[in-house]
């Protein structure tokens, strides 16, 4: 299972390995206080895409399409995480306020499609 959580939510034992998938470090969070297995900046949307999207739900579908295209061109940075998600639960962490329209949700959807392609 691939979980998605805000960085401000407490760590839970069932989270499994936890990876921050934002390009920018979350405001108000000290690195030493965030139980984290890695900060995967290279999996985050590009600065241009992030700025264009601006967490506007009206742009969500196009954002996902563009983000998936970026990910396809950057597969060396995410294959290990996809493989890990096939073997154990993982958690993708994000800092956006919108829990439905953010890059971690889009990344989970991308991984779920990739897992289906192999099945």
Automatic annotation (TrEMBL):
Pfam families: DUF488-N3i (PF22752). It comes from Oryzomonas rubra. It comes from the Bacteria. This is DUF488 domain-containing protein. The lineage of its organism: Bacteria, Pseudomonadati, Thermodesulfobacteriota, Desulfuromonadia, Geobacterales. InterPro entries: YeaO-like (IPR052552).
């Amino acid at each position: 299972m691939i979980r998605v959580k805000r960085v401000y939510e407490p760590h839970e034992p069932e989270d499994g390995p936890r990876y921050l998938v934002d390009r920018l470090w979350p405001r108000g969070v000290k690195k030493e206080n965030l139980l984290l297995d890695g900060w995967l900046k290279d999996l985050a949307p590009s600065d241009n895409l992030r700025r264009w999207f601006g967490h506007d739900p009206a742009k969500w579908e196009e954002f996902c399409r563009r983000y998936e295209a970026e990910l396809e061109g950057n597969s060396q940075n995410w294959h290990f995480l996809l493989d890990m998600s096939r073997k154990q639960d993982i958690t993708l962490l994000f800092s956006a306020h919108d829990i439905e329209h953010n890059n971690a949700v889009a990344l989970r959807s991308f991984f779920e499609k990739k897992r289906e392609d192999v099945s």
